[in-house]
Write a structure and sequence with these properties.
By secondary structure, the chain is an alpha/beta fold. About 45% of the residues lie in helices and about 15% in strands. The protein has helices at about 35-50, 70-80, 90-105, 125-130, 155-165, 165-175, 180-185, 195-210, 215-230, 235-250, 250-260, and strands spanning about 10-15, 20-25, 55-60, 110-115, 120, 135, 140-145, 180, 190-195. The radius of gyration is 20 Å and the shape is globular.
Length: about 270
């Protein structure tokens, strides 16, 4: 695949027109996160930041599980690293790297769609919470499970709180509550609930076709505007939004979209 590594150790990539399917591929450990997997995901999203030919990224897991969180074997090894005098604790440094990755996914200009079956636990739950659109099966399992093993959901908690609010995040994090798809839908963690894996595939295709109708630059700029909400004063957000509106309106996309509307035909990006 052009501009992407020809082979990844822990990922499967498939390009379909303007769609990039990214599958976590450590099924033997339920796609648990280790440094290799996180590093390869970061490499993919670094490339995506400047790719306007890819409009949507689909995240899912191989073997029927989205992601069961951090690989505890690797985490146990990192806990043995001793801080050097005057230096930041290496555990904190390693932990912060996952937050950096989640920031990349959260702000990537592409639409990120998470298709969840099996489990989305701990770090995998955080990855789900930085998607733009999420689908899950009824029997999918979810949890912020960190406190149950004596650690802190440090890097995922801010993203979960942005997704469902502080009160609900406090409840999930401080009880390590485990729950299924219907509760994930009720909380707003996912947007669509389906019965099983075949229904998941069908719903995913339906959503991808909806995204096909949207212009890539318009989606990227809209996402940038929405991401400002709550983090800056309203007047600053509105100023930023006006600038993004002007950028979109002066683009070839807007010219094509308005022309297509007048001619009663789909715009080019919807059919390419």
């Amino acid at each position: 695949m052009t501009d992407f590594a020809p082979k990844y150790q822990t990922l499967l990539l498939h390009r379909e027109r303007s769609r990039l399917h990214v599958t976590l591929n450590r099924p033997e450990v339920k796609n648990a996160l280790n440094p290799t997997l996180i590093g390869e995901l970061k490499a993919v999203f670094e490339i995506l930041r400047d790719r306007r030919d890819i409009k949507v990224v689909v995240l899912r897991g191989a073997g029927g599980t989205f992601c069961a969180g951090a690989d505890l074997k690797n985490m146990e090894q990192s806990f043995r690293d001793t801080p050097k005098p005057g230096a930041k604790d290496p555990i904190a440094v390693n932990n912060r790297e996952y937050g950096t990755f989640l920031e990349m996914v959260n702000t990537t200009p592409q639409v990120v769609v998470a298709a969840v079956e099996g489990y989305a636990i701990a770090g995998g739950f955080g990855l789900l919470c930085v998607s733009d659109v999420a689908i899950c099966t009824e029997d999918a399992g979810f949890a912020m499970s960190e406190t149950a093993i004596g650690i802190v959901p440090a890097q995922i908690a801010p993203f979960v709180a942005a997704r469902i609010g502080v009160p609900q995040t406090r409840h999930l994090a401080l009880t390590a509550s485990r729950f299924k798809g219907p509760e994930a839908l009720r909380l707003g963690i996912v947007h669509h609930l389906v019965e099983d894996s075949p229904a998941l595939d069908a719903k995913l295709e339906e959503i991808l076709k909806q995204i096909d109708r949207c212009a890539p630059l318009a989606n990227a700029l809209t996402k940038a505007v929405v991401m400002k909400v709550g983090g800056e004063p309203l007047s600053s957000v509105l100023d930023f939004a006006a600038d993004k509106f002007a950028e979109a309106r002066r683009s070839p996309e807007a010219a094509e979209g308005l022309r297509a509307f007048a001619e009663k035909r789909p715009p080019r990006w919807a059919t390419e």
